[in-house]
Amino acid sequence: MSKILVGLKRVIDYNVRVRVKPDGSGVVTDGVKMSINPFDEIALEEALRIKEKGGATEVVVASIGPADAQQQLRTGLAMGADRAILVQADAPLEPLAAARVFLKLIEREQPQIVLLGKQGIDDDNNQTGQMLAALWNRPQATFASKVELAGATARVTREVDAGLETIEIDLPAVITTDLRLNEPRYVKLPEIMKAKKKPLDTLTLGDLGVDATPQFKVTHYAPPPPRQKGIMVKDVGELVATLKQKGLIQ
Amino acid sequence: MTKVLVIAEHAGGKLNPATAKCVSCARAIEGAEIHVAVLAADASEVASQAAQLEGVARVLKVEHAANAEPLAAVLAPQIVALAGDYTHLLAPSTTFGKDLMPRVAALLGVGQLSDIMTVERPYRFRRPIYAGNAIITVEAPSDRKLVATVRTASFQAAPNGGNAEIQAVQLNVELPTHTRFVERSAAATGRPDLQTAARVVSGGRALGSEEGFKLIYSLADKLGAAVGASRAAVDAGYAPNDLQVGQTGKIIAPELYIAVGISGAIQHLTGIKDARTIVAINKDPEAPIFEVADIGLVGDLFEVLPELERQLG
Ligand SMILES: Cc1cc2nc3c(=O)[nH]c(=O)nc-3n(C[C@H](O)[C@H](O)[C@H](O)COP(=O)(O)OP(=O)(O)OC[C@H]3O[C@@H](n4cnc5c(N)ncnc54)[C@H](O)[C@@H]3O)c2cc1C
Asked: What ipTM does the predicted assembly reach?
């Protein structure tokens, strides 16, 4: 029985233009569309493909978040996951606490691979997978754009600043996904119906014995500084003249 | 006492310029004594480059055959062994630093702060979230080590002019063998490096093909510029992945950024917020890129680019 555990975070949809509240206390979330973090959707797609090729027997999705994160888990089940776990947490967790939760889930589920998105597009931290691998004392293959399994090892191609890097890791391990790993499938209506019958368990942080007290304090949210209004030029001649005048080209 | 350890990023015996930017961030931490750690198979060249950075008091040279390639699982326990009485551990927010520092932090049992853009106080920082749509002020506890990555586009490189002492350090740490380097394919282009270039020409989906994308290379070469790309252009295979600019690609701060046939999605814009001058060439006058462009030209790139090259002489 080889299992893959996938993390699905509920985040503001990537198409939403996120706005800071006027009093600087946070970002506007009321009435805003929520979705699965795009990197996590890619992680789930990869897990499903591995299972479909016979590389795993079960795909379990887990989300740490509010009760509403069930929606994202249901979507994950409709995509093809076998089972879902909601770890209910009303306040957002810092990555270290999230990693501690996943470590507890690993102890319960004994997965061969944990697939997570490389970053959440909400706080853009890019930490949880690496922290989990450290706590688990297992390999990490971050920013994956290709995953090839070979028995007890995996070959992972990673998107790094210099280009592409390939590493070989022993399993079990944590793999975090980059955008070009795959294109997630669309969910079809019958699957949404079927997904309603798949098991979704709810746990609390207390059940898992994880202390999620944050270490950092966010004291203020500000909108990014605006850029100065630019100018429009009518043709290439004017563009070149403007660039020269600004000393940007000779 | 405030002591900062900067983890050097390097390849092929050369210190990555991101490290000098990290040192600048460290210098913004009041009263900090700054050390740089170079972990390598043979660290001498890189260590002497790091020793020249202004503001660096000491360079720690950690040499081990296992450090030939920067594998986070191998480096992290060594950095933990070095961490001693350092109050702050910093690395650039490059794929190297992002891979490594969370692993270091977790081994130390502390959280990690990503993408420092401003140091307000030794334990108060600003950083972007939501692809740069919000900037948060974060306070960290001063009774724990602060492990962080530095948003390099927010800092100038520390200049040369220093002469730090170089100290070889022997660590007695068991290193894992569960993670093995296989290969790295980096396109040697002979062009300026995207992350440090003063000028960048970037192409989007509108280039239409790998062949079409040659227009971007050609203009870039004329300007001595680096080449960048939108995600759509990379996904479509017109340009390699290491050219992607944006939230999940590279965050850059050139003097001049020319965006050609790029719509200006928020995930792209977050990568170019610190560019001094943004030029946009797009045939759609409503394209969001024009909202951030300093100079905009509405036109068909397939006509504009050849004409632009001609006029540049
Ligand atoms: C989680 C996530 C992360 C992402 N990260 C990134 C990232 O790091 N970087 C990034 O770039 N994107 C990123 N994206 C994708 C982003 O949302 C956009 O889809 C992408 O930037 C669009 O690329 P584009 O501007 O080239 O293509 P399009 O949006 O298709 O724009 C093409 C533009 O070309 C113009 N055009 C067409 N023909 C011509 C012509 N002949 N002459 C002139 N102009 C023409 C059009 O008017 C249009 O504005 C991310 C998305 C997600 C969900």
From this structure: 0.96
Q: How far apart are CA A158 and CA A146, in angstroms?
A: 7
CA distance B38 to A87: 40
Confidence of residue A39 (pLDDT cuts 50, 70, 90): very high
Q: B295, B215, B274: which is closest to A243 by C-alpha?
A: B295
**End-to-end CA gap in chain A:** 66
By C-alpha distance, the chain B residue nearest A128 is B102
Cross-chain residue pair A216–B139, CB shorter than 8 Å? yes
Tokens of A216: 């950092």
Answer for the pair A94, A122: CB distance below 8 angstroms, yes or no. no
Give per-residue pLDDT as tens, B111-138: 999 999 999 999 999 999 999 999 999 9
Cβ A17 vs Cβ A27: under 8 Å:
no
Q: For ligand 1, atom 19, name the residue with the nearest CA.
A: B232
The minimum CA-CA distance between A199 and chain B, rounded to whole Å, is 32
State the pTM of this model.
0.96
Contact in structure between A158 and A144 (CB atoms under 8 Å): yes
Q: Is the pLDDT at A103 greater than 80, yes or no?
A: yes
Stated as kind and residue range, the H or E segment containing A242 is helix A236-245
Q: CB of B113 within 8 A of CB of B105?
A: no
Residues 59-98 in B contacting A (C-alpha not used; CB under 8 Å): 71-73, 76, 94-96, 98
Q: Please tell me if residue B152 touches chain A, with a CB cutoff of 8 Å.
A: no
Cβ pair A20, A221 in contact under 8 A? yes
CA atoms of B51 and B57, how far apart (whole Å) = 8
> 3-state class of B109 per DSSP?
coil
Query: Which of B129, B251, B301 would best serve as a mutation to test chain A binding (most A beta carbons within 10 A)?
Result: B129
Instruction: Round to whole Å and give the CA distance between A239 and A246.
Output: 11
Residue nearest to atom 22 of ligand 1 (CA): B232
Contact list, A129 vs chain B (CB under 8 Å): 102
Q: How many CB atoms lie under 10 A from the CB of residue B24?
A: 20
In 3-state terms, what secondary structure has residue A143? strand
Tokens at residue A246, please?
Answer: 């600004």
Q: Say whether B111 and A216 touch across the interface (CB within 8 A).
A: yes
Residue A62 DSSP code = E
